Amino acid sequence: MRITDQISVSVTAIKQVAPMIKEFTLEPVDGLLTPFSPGAHIVVEMGSSGSSADKQSYRNAYSLMSNPMYSRQYRIAVRLQDDSRGGSVYMHQQVEVGTQLKISPPANLFAPEWMAKKHVLFAGGVGITPFLSYLPELQQRKAEFELHYMFRSRQTGAYSAELRDTLGTGCSCYDADLGNRCDIAAVMSGQPLGTHFYICGPESLIDAVRTTADAMGIPASAIHWEAFAGAKPGQPFVVELSQSGLELAVAANSSLLETLESADIKIPNLCRAGVCGQCVCDVAEGEIEHRDSYLSDSEKQSGQVMMPCVSRAAGERLVLDI
Ligand code: FES
User: Is the distance from CB of 55 to CB of 40 less than 8 angstroms?
Assistant: First the structure.
C-alpha cells in the first residue's frame, strides 16, 4: 500500500455494540469512497496514545460490515483485544466522533464463492463482521445459506438480536456464557454436495472447522477462512536492511512491517495477518519466529523468507535482503 493510496475519513458515529466491541462509521473527508465487494476489508492507520517520545502508529485490518451497495460510508467494528499492541485500545479510547483517520482502499481476500450450491457461515465473536457484508448480496441472489454465530455475551455477541430477527431460522446463535456450543461436525455433515464453508473468528474456530472438514473429506477448496487477529506483540529486536545498511529497532509492540513502513520502506501487503503472502521478504541472516499461515513448512525451515506483518526475529537481530 503506497501512502498516496490512503484515504482520509472522518468518524461520524460510534456505537458500543457489545461490551468489548465498538462500531465506527467512517465517511470521506473529500469525495467518495470506493465501492467494495462482500468480504472486503480496509487497513486503518492509528496513532497510539502516550507522550510524543513513545508515540507510535499502528495499521490494523478491519472487515467492512456495511452494505456494499451503499459506499457513501464504511462501517467497521473493533474488538478491544486482551493482548492489544495499542491499536484497538487507541480506537476504543482515543477515537471520537470527528476524529480523522487514514484508511487504505478496500481489498478482498474473503469473497463468497458464488458458484457454491449453499453457503455455511461460521462466525466467532467480532468475526461476524465480514458476513454482515455478505448478507445483502446472499439475500438479493436468493442464495441458500445458514449462519452459525458463536460468542460470549459478556464480551461480544454484537448484532445477534438483529440477525435472529432478520434471518429467523437461517441464523443460529451460540452464547458460550450461557453454555451453548455449536456442534461443528453436526452442522457440516449432511450439507448438499457443492456447499462452501466460510469461517471468520479466532484461530481455534478456524482450526476446528478445517480439521472437521478434513476428517469428513470435504475438499480444501470448499473451505474459506479469514483470521481477524493481526500481529501480536513480541520481544524487541534490531533489523538490518542489507542493501542500504539501514538498521531499525523493532519495538515489542510494533510489527516488523509497521517498523519498515515507519521508515518509509514500502512492502506490498493486503491482509496484515500472515495469510495472503503479499509481504514476503527475503532473509539474509538471523533466526525467524514464524507466525504466519502462508509459508509452507519447508519454506519456514529454510530460514530464507518471512512474512513481516506477523513474524519476528527469534533472536536479537535479523538481516533482511532488501
Ligand atoms: S500482508 Fe498478508 S501475509 Fe503479510
Answer: no
Integer Cα distance of 278 and 268 in angstroms:
6
Backbone dihedral angles phi then psi of residue 179, each to the nearest 5 degrees:
80, 15
108, 136, 152 - which closes a domain: 108
Query: Whose alpha carbon is nearest atom 3 of ligand 1?
Result: 274
CATH code, 126: 3.40.50.80
Interval between CA 187 and ligand 1 midpoint (Å): 31
Give, in degrees to the nearest 5, the angle at Cα 232 between 302 and 156.
135
Residues 171, 93, single domain; the answer is: no
Atom of ligand 1 nearest to the CA of 257: 4
> Are 14 and 99 within one domain?
yes
Ligand 1 pocket: which of 278, 293, 295, 300 to mutate (most atoms within 8 A of CB): 278
pLDDT by residue (tens digit) across 160-208?
A: 999 999 999 999 999 999 999 999 999 999 899 999 999 999 889 999 9
Domain count, the chain: 3
Q: How do residues 33-82 score in pLDDT, each as one tens digit?
A: 989 999 999 999 887 544 444 556 788 899 999 889 887 899 999 999 87
Q: What is the pTM of this model?
A: 0.87
